[in-house]
Each structure stands twice: as C-alpha cells, then as structure tokens.
C-alpha cells in the first residue's frame, strides 16, 4: 500500500530511542524526509545514521522557545513542514503521595505545553499549504489513570484533550490531528536498568522476571508491545490513507483499556 508519504517533510520528537526512533525510521522507509529531534546529540546521530534524507536537531521540547525553533529548523532544512509527531516524554513509577511540584511541572511541560507549542507553530503553516498531519503519542493511562504515576496519567489525559481541540480547529483547513494511546511498550523506559520494570519489581519485592510477567498479564494480549507496532499506527495516521481520521485517540495497547475507541 502506497501511503503517499514520499517527499513529505516530517518532525519527530523524542526520536533518538524507543517509539520515536521507530516512527522516524518508519516515515523514512516510506520516502519521507525526517527531522529527528531529541536532547542528546550522540543518540540522535546514532538514530539517524543510514537513514536517507534524515536531519537531526538537539532540542528540549520543554523550553519555551523550542516549538518555534524546531519548526523553523524544519522549514529551513526542508522548505516546509507536512507532518509533526509529538512523542517526547518520560515517566517513573512514583506513588501519588511522593510526587513533588517539580514532578507535576515536568509532566505538564513534556506532555501538554511542549506539544502545544509545537502544534501552535506547525499547524498554521500546514493550514496555509492546505495539507498536514499531526500525531500525538499519548498513553493508555491517559484513558484509564494509572497509580504508577498520577502526574503522567493526568497530563496524558490533558494531551488527549489538547489533540482533540487542535483537530477541531484545523480539520477544515486540511490539517488532520490525531493521537495514539500505547500501553506498556518494551522500550528503554521500561526495560533499561533502573527503568519502570525494575522500579515496579523493587516496590513489590519481586524479581525482574516476575515483574515482567505481571506487566504482561495486565494486557489481554499477554505481553508488552513493541516500538515498531506503535510506529506502524502512527505512520498510517501521518499518511494520505488516513484522510478521514480526525480527532481520534487510537488505543494501540494490546487491549489494556477496555473501550471501543
């Protein structure tokens, strides 16, 4: 199936690893030109290596000028912007009574203000050209709040609302905004030493293997997702083939959230 992405000019945040890296590679495989955005130059260089027409930019999406700066870089390097994937984010397993003001602020900036600034900079340019795609990588915990990190869940819910607000504002001008909501995914966030898996194991007093089995058991599919599985849904939503999908919040979670969406 031709997704109509050849030559499209794309931004992917959080592109140095995990879901973002898989999305950037998936778009590039369809012939798109991709700006890999992340906070670490060495990791970005590694992620963009051997990817045709790839560029990278070191940026922290939580900085107030980051949205304008990232979009300006894409316009300078590619001549415009057609696709934006807001993927940057992180989380830690932290009980609600241990969350600090700094924790809440971090998640708000990562999941709401950062994406909003990027959409605010990119969507008008897309609308002026009459075509655009924006995909926000949210979380299943934005649909069914998780006790693992309430600040993350609450701001992911806000991100879904933000995504819908932009969808309503820009659809008539050819800019289609959607979101995906992954469940647990086998990325470094979960599986690296000290990641969520180890944090949950320590909190429950069990070993790593038992924690992994327990995480998989909470998903009807029976296991964590793979980054490429999430990326496939994102790339489709970025494509010509998703021309009648607007304001959606697709669950790509192995069945973790029992809903029809």
TrEMBL record:
InterPro entries in the record: KR_dom, NAD(P)-bd_dom_sf, SDR, SDR_fam
Keywords noted in UniProt: Oxidoreductase
Entry keyword annotation includes Oxidoreductase: yes
Location of the Ketoreductase domain: 8-199
GO molecular function terms listed in the Swiss-Prot or TrEMBL record: oxidoreductase activity
Superkingdom of origin organism: Bacteria
SMART domains registered for this protein in UniProt: PKS_KR
Keyword Oxidoreductase tagged: yes
PANTHER family: 3-OXOACYL-(ACYL-CARRIER-PROTEIN) REDUCTASE (PTHR42879)
Family membership: Belongs to the short-chain dehydrogenases/reductases (SDR) family.
Protein name: Short-chain dehydrogenase/reductase SDR
